[in-house]
């Protein structure tokens, strides 16, 4: 009988240390240590992130193996995030994965973090359906905002992207203006659910049909808040829910507009979302409605596979393993890597 394929995956591209064990396309464990240390700085501090990864990686891997109930000798391969991300953070995962693969004498699988966010849709789970090729994926995270045509597991084309800030940055920077802690995206989402989305209106950017721009929106929000605070110093405190709901409404309107343009241009009606911002309650709701209103088939990842996690690295590793796309020990981390690389 053929031995089942078990892959240990490691993700350390930014501020989450994560390890996962998967068996074929099923996730057996997915353990993540978040780094609280950055909250008070209003953003990720690279030096602190790599130090925290060094402290977390051994216990996180151990816990992932324990939860999966397997020993490392049973592993078929080690998958790790090669990039893009913070160099110091990537290096911790890369060196750990290389040494373990060498010690166990098993193959090494180098994974592109951006592809992995998209391939998370192929994790076997009874609660979610899986797209077929080709489909469109709106990748929305703290570092990226892209519309990607996914032709095959590792054959992707960028149809459009942001010309300045990523959507996650727009959330986090708006949150900072409102005095909320980092990462502010989930907080804006939380308060937005209690507010009136039409309370205030913010201008949507004028860019190409499949392009995004969020820096003007951020400046618009900043000027609006400064003006209101001159009139009422307690403006934010008294209207936080409405401000958050209005910001969220504007951002999600922009995302939905771009998806409508994409469907018009490509004729593809299978629409997926991926990345940290795909955890957002409003974009999730709007995509469910789009099934009914526009006849799209939409793919919304489970919460645990939206923000950075190792399970998505594991599933990508599984497809690379099946293709025998192994890396040798000379492989290095790359801070800059496109979804098409
Ligand atoms: O994919 P991710 O974990 O890391 C990157 O690769 O960037 O995305 C993190 C981003 C942050 O900007 C965070 O504020 C945002 O995802 N985010 C959200 C929500 N949850 C996370 N933004 C809006 N609503 C949410 N519920
Ligand atoms: Zn990410």
Secondary structure elements and pairings:
Blueprint: E1 6-11, E2 16-23, E3 26-34, H1 46-68, E4 77-83, H2 87-104, E5 108-112, H3 113-119, E6 135-140, E7 145-152, E8 155-161, H4 167-177, H5 185-192, H6 215-231, H7 235-266, E9 270-274, H8 281-294, E10 297-299, H9 311-322
Parallel strand pairs: 1-4, 4-5, 6-9, 9-10
Antiparallel strand pairs: 1-2, 2-3, 6-7, 7-8
Helix pairs in contact: 1-2, 3-9, 4-6, 4-7, 5-7, 7-8
Bound molecules: 5'-O-[(R)-(carboxyoxy)(hydroxy)phosphoryl]adenosine and zinc ion.
5'-O-[(R)-(carboxyoxy)(hydroxy)phosphoryl]adenosine binds next to helix 4 and helix 5.
Secondary-structure-based class equals alpha/beta
Shape: globular
Mind describing the biggest β-sheet?
5 strands, mixed
What oligomeric state do the depicted chains represent?
single chain
Beta content comes to: 15-25%
């Amino acid at each position: 009988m053929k031995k089942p394929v078990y892959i240990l995956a490691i993700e350390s591209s930014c501020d989450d240390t994560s390890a996962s064990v998967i068996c074929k396309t099923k996730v057996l464990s997915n353990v993540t240590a978040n780094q609280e240390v950055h909250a008070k700085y209003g953003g990720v501090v690279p030096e602190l992130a790599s130090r925290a990864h060094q402290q977390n990686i051994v216990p996180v891997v151990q816990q992932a193996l324990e939860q999966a109930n397997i020993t490392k000798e049973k592993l078929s391969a080690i998958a790790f995030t090669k990039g893009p991300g913070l160099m110091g953070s990537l290096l911790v995962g890369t060196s750990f994965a290389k040494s373990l693969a060498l010690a166990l004498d098993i193959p090494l699988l180098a994974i592109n973090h951006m592809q992995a966010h998209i391939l998370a849709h192929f994790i076997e789970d009874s609660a979610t359906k899986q797209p077929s090729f080709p489909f469109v994926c709106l990748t929305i995270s703290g570092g990226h905002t892209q519309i990607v045509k996914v032709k095959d597991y590792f054959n992707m084309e960028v149809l459009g992207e942001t010309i300045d800030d990523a959507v996650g940055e727009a959330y986090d920077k708006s949150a900072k203006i409102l005095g909320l802690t980092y990462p502010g995206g989930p907080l804006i989402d939380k308060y937005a659910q209690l507010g009136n989305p039409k309370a205030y209106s913010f201008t949507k950017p004028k860019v190409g049909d499949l392009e995004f721009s969020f820096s003007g929106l951020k400046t618009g929000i900043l000027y609006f808040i400064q003006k209101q605070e001159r009139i009422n110093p307690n403006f934010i405190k008294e209207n936080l829910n409405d401000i958050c709901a209005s910001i969220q409404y504007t951002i999600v309107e922009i995302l939905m507009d771009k998806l409508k343009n994409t469907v018009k241009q490509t004729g593809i009606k299978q629409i997926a979302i991926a990345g940290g911002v795909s955890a957002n309650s409003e974009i999730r709701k709007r995509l469910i409605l789009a099934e009914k209103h526009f006849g799209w088939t939409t793919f919304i990842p489970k919460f645990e596979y939206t923000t950075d996690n190792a399970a998505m690295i594991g599933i990508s590793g599984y497809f690379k393993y099946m293709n025998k796309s192994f890396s040798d020990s000379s492989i290095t981390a790359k801070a800059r890597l496109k979804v098409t690389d």
